[in-house]
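ok new one. same drill as before - structure tokens go in, u give me an amino acid for every spot. 415 of them this time. try not to just spam alanines like last time pls lmao
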């Protein structure tokens, strides 16, 4: 499909601060602050377990459980209570970044408030994992210890707010435009020994720290997520997604990562109060389009890639989106069902606007206006950077035709 216009220069230029990609970049000061807060939260959780265990040695665990609201009888998720008690006395958490800082798809919020940048930082807890039944210590004990520590941290930082109604994590709202989520994972003691954790954050940016911590691969079947709204631990390894996405970017190039960020920017502009497809589901849709055999020759630029991705998006969302590595349903999930028709409708609008802007707009001005209607003011209004591709193609074709004067004549001479 031949584009009429290309907005490649408006979408992304490596050295330019006046392109859409640059306008999505979080402020460096904000990234530094997020990194500092992450390390403070890690220190707080590490100290909380150390304090818990020191008090247990001093007072005895039975006396201490009242302080935390943990009953000894409820400590064991599976197997022996004494084994669970002894294991809890030895737990030393390690940590590992996850989410958009690992995928390198973190965008600046489109509307603040209420939208916020988020840091996802997993807390990994070593313990015995019993085959078929899972971790031996009940997840409630860990939620009690971590929640108590983070609540105290928020009291010491009065502008912070602790949230514990998320099923998969504890959350600290740091400011109107930033929060940190802390999910809890159980892993076998052997896996724990290999988990990389970088203590000295001073030499690492938020992105570099996340990359460094992904160097060790855990057995995904031996990683369990603590869920507040479920009885038992749930088998779930966030590194599976990061490894999957990393391999797809390696295959298709950085353009795939940028297109995923454009989709997230569309969602955040469209649903000011939150909502819309999850980031992971949008990433999966983009990957599926890149992997479609009809796109096997690749894309000439971000305009062409974005056009292909948004053209496929409504159908993908309507039919359901799966993480192919696990055949896990990403969209629609239960929370999406109520707004499913609206989400698909908005995806259709995205498709229509992008196609009109790139394929049939009457002018560069109309092309840019179409993109701004989708992405908002973060998309730059710069009509001079819009390239007229169809005219270039027609011009090239015309130049390729030989003129009558230079056309070769047949040679009828004898001999």
């Amino acid at each position: 499909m031949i584009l009429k216009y290309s907005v490649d220069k408006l979408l992304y230029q490596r050295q330019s601060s006046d392109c859409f990609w640059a306008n999505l970049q979080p402020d460096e000061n904000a990234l530094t602050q997020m990194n500092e807060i992450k390390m403070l939260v890690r220190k707080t959780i590490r100290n909380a377990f150390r304090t818990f265990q020191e008090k247990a040695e001093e007072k005895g665990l039975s006396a201490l459980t009242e302080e935390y609201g943990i009953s000894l009888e409820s400590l064991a998720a599976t197997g022996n209570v004494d084994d669970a008690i002894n294991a809890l006395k030895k737990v030393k958490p390690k940590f590992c970044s996850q989410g958009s800082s690992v995928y390198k798809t973190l965008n600046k919020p489109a509307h603040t408030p209420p939208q916020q940048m988020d840091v996802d930082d997993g807390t990994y807890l070593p313990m015995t994992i019993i085959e078929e039944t899972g971790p031996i210590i009940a997840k409630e004990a860990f939620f009690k210890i971590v929640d108590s520590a983070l609540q105290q941290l928020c009291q010491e930082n009065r502008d912070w707010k602790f949230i514990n109604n998320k099923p998969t994590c504890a959350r600290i709202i740091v400011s109107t435009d930033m929060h940190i989520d802390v999910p809890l994972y159980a892993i076998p003691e052997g896996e724990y020994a290999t988990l990389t954790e970088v203590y000295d954050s001073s030499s690492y940016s938020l992105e570099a720290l996340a990359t460094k911590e992904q160097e060790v691969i855990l057995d995904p079947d031996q990683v369990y997520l603590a869920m507040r709204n479920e009885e038992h631990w749930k088998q779930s390894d966030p590194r599976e997604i990061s490894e999957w996405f990393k391999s797809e970017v390696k295959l298709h190039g950085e353009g795939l990562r940028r297109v995923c960020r454009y989709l997230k920017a569309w969602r955040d502009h469209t649903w000011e109060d939150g909502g819309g497809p999850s980031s992971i589901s949008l990433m999966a849709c983009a990957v599926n389009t890149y992997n479609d055999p009809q796109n096997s020759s690749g894309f000439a630029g971000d305009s062409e890639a974005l056009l292909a991705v948004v053209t496929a998006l409504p159908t993908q969302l309507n039919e359901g989106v799966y993480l192919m590595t696990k055949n896990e349903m990403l969209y629609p999930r239960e929370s999406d069902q109520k707004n499913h028709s609206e989400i698909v409708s908005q995806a259709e609008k995205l498709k229509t606007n992008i196609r009109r802007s790139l394929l049939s707009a009457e002018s560069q001005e109309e092309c840019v206006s179409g993109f701004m209607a989708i992405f908002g003011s973060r998309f730059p209004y710069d009509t001079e950077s819009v390239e007229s591709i169809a005219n270039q193609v027609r011009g090239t074709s015309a130049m390729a035709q030989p003129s009558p004067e230079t056309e070769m004549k047949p040679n009828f001479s004898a001999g």
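The chain is about 50% helix and 15% strand. and btw Residues 27-237 form one domain.
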